[in-house]
Amino acid sequence: MAGRLEGKVALITGGASGQGRAAAMMFASEGAQVVLSDVNEEGGTQTRHMVTENGGQAVFTAADVSVEADAQAMVEVALKTYGALHVLYNNAGTVGIGVDARVTRLSVESWDLIMNVNLRGIFLSSKYGIPALREH
C-alpha cells in the first residue's frame, strides 16, 4: 500500500533537528520526497542521511529563512530536484540560545533574531512557497 504522501514533495524548514527532523522521517515514511532546509548544515546533512538510510528520498539545502534570497532558493531546490512542491512545513523557529527572555533583559539583537526567524521566516517561506504549491 502506498503511503499517504506517495509522489508528493515536502519542504521542511528547520529540518536539522527536533520536530523538523521528526517530520522529515515521518513524511518520508509516508512516501514524500523531502527537501530539508536549515542554518545548521551538520544537522541538516545528518537528517538527510537518516531519511535516505531508511529508504526515503531527501536533499538538504542550507538556508536562513529570514533571508529573502535563501527562502526563494530553497523553493527552487525543491522544484529543480523533484519538479514540484506539495507540502510546505514552516517549522523553523528560535527562542534564542542562552537568552533571558524577560522583556527588561532581552537585548534588541535577540529580539530581532527571534522576530526575523519566527515571523519574517514564515512570511518569506510562504511568499515563495505558496505560488509553487498552487502550481502543483
UniProtKB/TrEMBL annotation:
InterPro entries: NAD(P)-bd_dom_sf (IPR036291), SDR_fam (IPR002347). Gene3D superfamilies: NAD(P)-binding Rossmann-like Domain. It comes from the Bacteria. PANTHER family: SHORT-CHAIN DEHYDROGENASE REDUCTASE, SHORT-CHAIN DEHYDROGENASE_REDUCTASE FAMILY PROTEIN. This is Short-chain dehydrogenase. It comes from Entotheonella factor.
